[in-house]
Amino acid sequence: MSRPSKSQWIYRISSLLSLIFMLFFISPSFIHAETSMQGYKEVFHDHPIIPFFNNEESTNNEDEKDKEQYQRLEDVRVVPGGQSIGVQLETKGVLVVGHHQVKASEGAKSPGEAAKINVGDTIVEINGQKINHMTDIKPIVDHSGKENKKLQVKLKRGNEFIETNLQPIFDKKENAYKIGLYIRDTAAGIGTMTFYDPETGRYGALGHVISDMDTKKPIDIKQGSIIHSSVTSIEKGDNGLPGEKQASFQTQEKRIGNITRNTDFGIFGKLEKEVNHEKYEETFPVALSHEVKEGPAKILNVVDEEKIEEFDIEIISSVPQKSASTKGMVIQITDPKLLELTGGIVQGMSGSPIIQNDKIIGAVTHVFVNDPTSGYGVHIEWMLEDAGIIQPEDNESAA
């Protein structure tokens, strides 16, 4: 092997010096920003469970057939949201949310628990038949119970698929065969839209994953809807007790789009109707994490019916991120009107777009339990990725 030339040695030494320079000057600021987030407790905005409205809509596969071209980062412009939205989800399979005892002649027990089916598992198949709704289970259980045969149950647990056998028990009081499981196939709640792209119809909302309120685990969705909602009242937050917005959304006529993804950074899909915005109609550029500055900013949110308002906040700290993370900013509500109405960040405010220097920089995601005036925000680039507006590799190269 030939020895490196003098010019090659100079190039290698200069590259090493550049790396040392970057580590020396960049690392301390990153550590300081991250340390400033320690010592806080946060609460995830789990959504209350209400009846789900069945509907026909586009699936992930159909959405894949209609992909638009990704945008370049420098070209990205989206309309800020702020609208209060109702969220309706239908799970993939049926979610197990609890166990219960079945009273039989030999005593009370839970067949599901005996079969080692855990809370948070999703039932995807029974006896080779796909399970889409809770109503799919009862006839199979009745048939197997009468035949005195065990059910062959396929479960999804995290990223793994597990199979187990379950023997239904006849409950004399209920006069029916039971499996001793509490199950759910739908979920709903309220949140806030963060942005939408008027060219493609793609949108992002919430800024955090929707988890089941009982299992606290992310919901693996089959399909879903976002619906116009109207804020009816606000339960003010206090130290140790986060507040909550109450809103109504009752008819499918108000549906404005589908939901195809539920990720760590929010819910995503496509709009099917035009979205009204009294505050802004024009598109805004976006700022990536390294462009966000500590100091004043604004959020958009609804606190009365459907009126979008602008409220003052302070960016307490922001971490320049080169990889996806859900807690990129610490923010504090400073607007006197919002503090008077809500006490700070409340449930239902998740997804409120954060605007600084006429750019969309992120969304509100969490509230600190011990200080409802403050909480976390997520940087906008991660939501843009999950919305399918920018490619991950493009974002990482520019961050």
Task: Briefly summarize what is shown.
By secondary structure, the protein is of the alpha+beta class. It is built from 7 helices and 27 strands.
How does this structure look, described?
This protein is of the alpha+beta class. The protein is 18% helix and 40% strand. The chain has 7 helices and 27 strands. Strands 2, 3, 6, 7, 8, 9, 12, 13, 14, 17, 18, 19 and 20 form a 13-stranded antiparallel beta sheet that branches. The chain has a 6-stranded antiparallel β-barrel with strand order 21-22-23-27-26-25. The two termini are 38 Å apart.
Structural class: alpha+beta
The helical percent reads 10-25%
Task: Give the oligomeric state of the chains in this entry, treating copies of one chain as homo and distinct chains as hetero.
Answer: single chain
Shape: elongated
What is the overall pLDDT average? 79
User: Over the alpha carbons, how many angstroms does the gyration radius reach?
Assistant: 25 Å
Give short descriptive properties of this protein.
7 helices; alpha+beta; 13-stranded antiparallel beta sheet; six-stranded antiparallel beta barrel; 399 residues; elongated; 40% strand; 27 strands
Sequence-ordered SSE layout with sheet pairings:
Layout: H1 6-35, E1 42-43, H2 60-65, E2 77-80, E3 84-99, E4 102-104, E5 107-109, H3 111-114, E6 122-126, E7 129-130, H4 137-146, E8 151-157, E9 160-166, E10 169-171, E11 176-178, E12 181-196, E13 202-205, E14 221-228, E15 230-235, E16 243-248, E17 255-258, E18 261-263, E19 266-270, E20 284-285, E21 295-304, E22 307-318, E23 329-333, H5 336-342, E24 346-347, E25 353-356, E26 359-368, E27 371-379, H6 380-386, H7 392-398
Parallel strand pairs: 16-24
Antiparallel strand pairs: 1-26, 2-12, 2-20, 3-6, 3-12, 3-14, 4-5, 6-7, 6-8, 8-9, 10-11, 12-13, 13-19, 14-17, 15-16, 18-19, 21-22, 21-25, 22-23, 23-27, 25-26, 26-27
